[in-house]
């Protein structure tokens, strides 16, 4: 029988009162732009691969310079030791950067790393050109161009052979399992299945972002005897152009690095995926000269995208600066400058399987009354030529001018 009472107090049937809970659970870092590199990488060209290992060729033009390997004291000696004899070809003109002397290549001996030349060709017959001078060890010789006589014959062909580069696709999966009752229950914050599915997608996004940043390519057999491949990330790609700052990033040194290295090869406009220390440093260097723009990720008005800073290098190259939260939290002070035109997202897809990131529904056992779904992908990073990218590490702050000023 119901109890008869006067004015109700809070304690009366308090268990029946709907709790004052925010109708939407606050999910920390749910903004997709926090995985800065992945946000852009998922929009580069997607290309399928017919197996887990994929290859591509990288070629380049013949090098323009080489170093002398041993001094030549006289002005008439015609045999010169060099570091890389294959850089030279018969009937080419080369100049000594230090002395200005121009020489014609007569022969190349790759076995002994020697070239034979005609010295000071522009000074012959009293032409008034630069005279021959002693050659120092480690003098830089620079190719000018070919020269032939009036009745020239076929010249020796000089070409380069492309080098093969490879990476692996990496299988990644996340499984979401909920009981039948857990799915049926009503929560003040909404149903559990759509919320947990969304959260799983966000968690996968953050982990894929980290994989494509700092992963290393490998192939091994795990403890269960399975063949496993892992993909290499972009932070491990640059080997030619690396700037280990080890403290304060100074404006003049940074600009020199951009001109001479980071923006020297490939596109003049690149993306700098930076940690917060690097972003603070660049604002300390050039806050008044930075511009801010919104990069949309869709064609419709109001589509999602990211806010980027833009820094203009002295050579006219442009850096779009994007924070990557994975770098900020785990590798603060480090970042990578990427030529996005070189990147491809390679996906192992064939025979009706498209294994870009997707949800495979109903992967539970036949006698399981609950729900299991699998989030799965099998893909890797193709970076093109490593010289198109650059690594900056160890930044703790920024300053205008040069060190010591």
Would you spell out the secondary-structure blueprint of this structure?
Layout: H1 36-41, E1 46-49, E2 53-58, E3 65-67, E4 79-81, E5 92-96, E6 102-109, E7 114-118, E8 140-146, E9 163-168, E10 170-178, H2 180-184, H3 192-214, E11 218-221, E12 227-230, E13 242-250, H4 251-262, E14 269-274, H5 276-286, E15 291-296, E16 305-312, E17 318-323, H6 325-330, E18 335-338, E19 344-348, E20 358-360, E21 371-382, E22 390-399
Parallel strand pairs: 1-19, 13-22, 14-17
Antiparallel strand pairs: 2-9, 3-8, 4-7, 5-6, 5-8, 6-7, 10-21, 11-12, 14-18, 15-16, 16-17, 18-22, 19-21, 20-21
Q: Care to describe what's here?
A:
This protein is of the alpha+beta class and 405 residues long. It has two domains: 288 residues, phage-related protein like fold; 82 residues, Elongation Factor Tu (Ef-tu), domain 3 (Beta Barrel), CATH 2.40.30. Helices cover 16% and strands 33% of the residues. It contains six helices and 22 strands. A seven-stranded mixed sheet has the order 13-22-18-14-17-16-15. A six-stranded antiparallel sheet has the order 3-8-5-6-7-4, with no helix packed on it. Strands 1, 10, 19, 20 and 21 form a five-stranded mixed sheet that branches. Strand 5 and strand 6 form a beta hairpin. It is elongated, with a radius of gyration of 31 Å. The chain starts with 35 loop residues before the first helix and ends in a 6-residue tail after the last strand. The mean pLDDT is 88.
């Amino acid at each position: 029988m119901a109890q008869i009472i006067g004015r109700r107090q809070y304690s009366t049937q308090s268990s029946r009162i709907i709790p004052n809970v925010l109708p939407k659970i606050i999910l920390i870092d749910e903004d997709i732009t926090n995985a800065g590199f992945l946000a852009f990488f998922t929009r580069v060209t997607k290309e399928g691969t017919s197996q887990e290992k994929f290859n591509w060729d990288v070629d380049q033009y013949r090098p323009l310079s080489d170093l002398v390997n041993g001094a030549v004291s006289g002005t008439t000696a015609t045999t010169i030791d060099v570091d890389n004899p294959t850089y030279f070809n018969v009937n080419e003109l080369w100049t000594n950067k230090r002395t200005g002397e121009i020489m014609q290549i007569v022969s190349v001996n790759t076995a002994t790393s020697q070239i034979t030349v005609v010295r000071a060709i522009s000074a012959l017959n009293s032409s008034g050109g630069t005279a021959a001078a002693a050659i120092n060890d480690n003098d830089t010789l620079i190719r000018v161009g070919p020269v032939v006589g009036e009745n020239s014959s076929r010249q020796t062909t000089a070409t380069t052979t492309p080098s093969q580069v490879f990476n692996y696709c990496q299988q990644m999966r996340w499984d979401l399992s909920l009981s039948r009752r857990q799915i049926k229950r009503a929560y003040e914050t909404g149903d559990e299945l759509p919320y947990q599915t969304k959260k799983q997608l966000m968690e996968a996004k953050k982990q894929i972002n980290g994989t494509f940043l700092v992963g290393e390519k490998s192939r091994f057999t795990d403890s269960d005897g399975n063949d496993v491949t892992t993909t290499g990330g972009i932070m491990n790609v640059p080997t030619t152009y690396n700037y280990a700052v080890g403290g304060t990033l100074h404006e003049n040194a940074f600009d020199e690095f951009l001109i001479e290295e980071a923006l020297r090869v490939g596109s003049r406009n690149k993306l700098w995926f930076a940690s917060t220390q690097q972003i603070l440093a660049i604002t300390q260097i050039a806050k008044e000269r930075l511009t801010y723009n919104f990069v949309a990720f869709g064609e419709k008005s109001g589509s999602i995208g990211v806010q980027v800073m833009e820094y203009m290098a002295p050579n006219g190259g442009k850096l779009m600066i994007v924070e990557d939260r994975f770098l900020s939290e785990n590798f603060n002070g480090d970042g990578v400058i990427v030529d996005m035109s070189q990147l491809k997202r390679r996906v192992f897809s064939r025979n009706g399987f498209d294994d870009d990131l997707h949800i495979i529904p109903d992967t539970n056992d036949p006698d399981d009354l609950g729900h299991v779904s699998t989030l799965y992908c099998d893909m890797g990073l193709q970076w093109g030529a490593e010289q198109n990218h650059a690594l900056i590490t160890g930044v703790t702050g920024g300053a205008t001018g040069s060190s010591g000023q």
